[in-house]
UniProtKB/TrEMBL annotation:
Protein name: Malonyl-CoA-acyl carrier protein transacylase, mitochondrial
Domain of life: Eukaryota
One annotated Gene Ontology cellular component of this protein: mitochondrion
Gene designation: MCAT
Cited SUPFAM superfamilies: FabD/lysophospholipase-like
Segment forming the signal sequence: none
Record keywords: Fatty acid biosynthesis, Fatty acid metabolism, Lipid biosynthesis, Lipid metabolism, Mitochondrion, Transferase, Transit peptide
Top-level taxonomy: Eukaryota, Metazoa, Chordata, Craniata, Vertebrata
Length: 202
């Protein structure tokens, strides 16, 4: 992925939108802008679905800068360039697919013992072949975190939500869960790990 990132100047833009935000139109206009400045086959697309009204858009730097300058036009509440070197989870990462596929073929992948969900389709991993396929595909396809949250916490009426624990520094995943499913978030807990505990283990 690092080598793919170095081929074309690209990046990722975090966007907090509003209910009337039109991400599709915004990306299309950014693509048209890129063509006017001489970029052939530009890329600008949603690369992460985080929670309602929150997306990460990735692609050519010029496209992302266009979106920053025109954020009000597209009803974006807040935009921020992420400190990464490439447009991950877009087709600009296509050159990394074959090397990753070859690396995965050289190792033994087992069926998961616990539930593990794919970023590609928000479904549970079932078979080793499916895991290998999805791990390669997720290089160029958007992360469907919001959809995974809905899959995990979908419940029939009256069925209790599971306890959810976020282990480590920060509570960002808890905040995302709250935005996706307020009722499920009531069973969320954060377990912090102090530096002293980490040092004792090492």
């Amino acid at each position: 992925m690092q080598e793919a990132s170095e081929i074309i100047p690209s990046g990722m833009l975090s966007v907090i939108g509003r209910r009337n935000s039109d991400y599709k139109t915004a990306c299309l206009e950014a693509l048209e802008y890129c063509k006017t400045v001489g970029i052939e086959d530009p890329v600008c697309e949603v690369s992460n679905y985080l929670f309602p009204d929150s997306r990460v858009i990735a692609g050519h730097i010029q496209a992302l800068e266009f979106l920053q300058k025109n954020s009000k036009k597209f009803s974006f509440a807040r935009v921020k360039m992420l400190p990464v070197s490439g447009a991950f989870h877009t087709r600009l990462m296509k050159s990394a697919m074959q090397p990753l596929s070859e690396a995965l073929e050289s190792i033994s992948i087992q069926e998961p013992l616990i539930s593990v969900y794919s970023n590609v389709d928000s479904k549970k991993y079932r078979q080793p072949e499916q895991i290998q396929h999805c791990l390669v595909e997720q290089l160029v396809l958007p992360v469907k975190w919001e959809q995974i949250m809905h899959t995990i916490y979908e419940r029939n009426k009256g069925k209790k939500f599971p306890y959810t624990y976020e282990v480590g520094p920060g509570k960002q995943l808890g905040a995302i869960l709250r935005s996706c499913n307020l009722k499920a978030s009531k069973y969320y807990s954060n377990i912090e790990v102090s530096e002293d505990e980490t040092n004792e283990e090492t």
